[in-house]
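Key idea: predict the complex, not the pieces.
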Amino acid sequence: MAGLLSRERIVAGPGFNRWLVPPAALAIHLSIGMAYGFSVFWLPLSKAIGITHSVACPADMSFLQQVVTTSCDWKISTLGWMFTLFFVFLGSSAAVFGRWLEHAGPRKAGVVAAFCWGGGFMISALGVQLHQIWLLWLGSGVIGGCGLGLGYISPVSTLIKWFPDRRGMATGMAIMGFGGGAMIGAPLADILMKHFATPTSVGVKETFITLGVIYFIAMLAGAFGYRVPPADWSVAPKVPRHRALTTQHAALRAEMITTRHVHVDVAWKTPQFWLLWWVLCLNVSAGIGVIGMSSPMIQEVFGGRLINLPGVPLSQLSEAQKAQVATIGASFAALLSLFNIAGRIGWASLSDYIGRKQTYFVFFVLGGCLYASVPTAGRSGIVPLFAGLFCLILTMYGGGFSTIPAYLADVFGTQFVGAIHGRLLTAWSAAGILGPVLVNYIREYQIDRGVPPAQAYNVTMYVLTGLLVLGFFCNLAVRPVAERYYMSDEELARERGLLAAGGRS
Amino acid sequence: MSQEDPSRGDGAGQWGLVALAWAAVGVPLLWGVWDTLMKAAKLFR
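Result:
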């Protein structure tokens, strides 16, 4: 089995078509992308005991008792901890196991990810059966979260090596899958829960088992589809003339793309690593902040206008009207998710033409202008303008994720890009905490001081704009890595020799 | 593997496999996109 998964077994043979690698990566990313869709389980799980209604726990029940109780239902806020666990363990496992992945190869990492993610669903199913929330946290949150991290970074290095001429597009295709996974998984889970629901069960346990099996198979198929290029393989770069807009632009791009390599254990000691860490963290923090408030914001800012009752604030609508507005809010969130995945492939592909640093300049300059325009768009009362701004903002949130691996490959070389990317993903974990905390704190602070809810978002948007301004300066400061950080030819040969000891490449 | 191999499959079989692999991930993704588009369409009704 170990041999079957080893790196030497997946060195591509003659005639291998490199376009087989992106769908393999997509199979894994589409599976783990379901992490974004887990909220579809919250409502049914909050009624796992009551079935038709949620059975509230006694007010004096301690947190520990709530974790192990089988007599009352879980709160949605308790279930929501799963998201935090997902992203904390995604970042941590990517950082810890990235170095291992470079040696073990993408197939072994993909298989481990499949066991973690699929197995996590099974443990969660047991948690539902026994009504033990800690089993869900452990199964999907911790073990599944490790699967997320390994699965997320498993194809990055391989794709960049297969597509040296289109690094952005190649990683963009895979990372687009992570954004799109919930689009498949959430409605599928909904269908499955309805199918499995009985008068005595909400159908989540059976849904977890079914999804676990589906994802396990899909991820194994992806992992077994991975091939790494031989060490001596290269593709003749066919850079169209229009890619380099001017001679000066071409020189600028060339300066930012190294042909040498920085060791993963050295990379994190460079200023470039931390500048890029902040670039990702700030872009993602702002994006997460916007995603979290997009649906309530459109409802509170426009209120009755969304259902042809202009001038009627949300608070004065009837319950039925509020439900209509909430449906529109959910539709808005769905629309944003489409732009999120479009941005992942679109911006990353564009970065192959205009350069990575320039792409992030667009995110921070244009993005900053868009964030700052949202309050004005809200005051204008023009819903399409408001929605359009958010859609563009979301493309840049997605684009930030998908462009960063190619940026790292440009700055640190391709030898350890998967492991370096893994360590950089801790910025995502940090942003997962920073973004929501910042948004919620600012909003509560303003509402406590009497600011109307609809206007309480304005200051938040300006603060998020401030994050992007900081990101702009971090990106501006990114320069090529100093000579002393690069691996010498001997070190590189030794490293490649270590890989060759376990394989041909 | 020779340098002249630009990683493009030599035969039709490789491209057939590529089409199959892309269909395996593309069809579910398109279904998800379609489902999301239908939900998003409510915003414009």
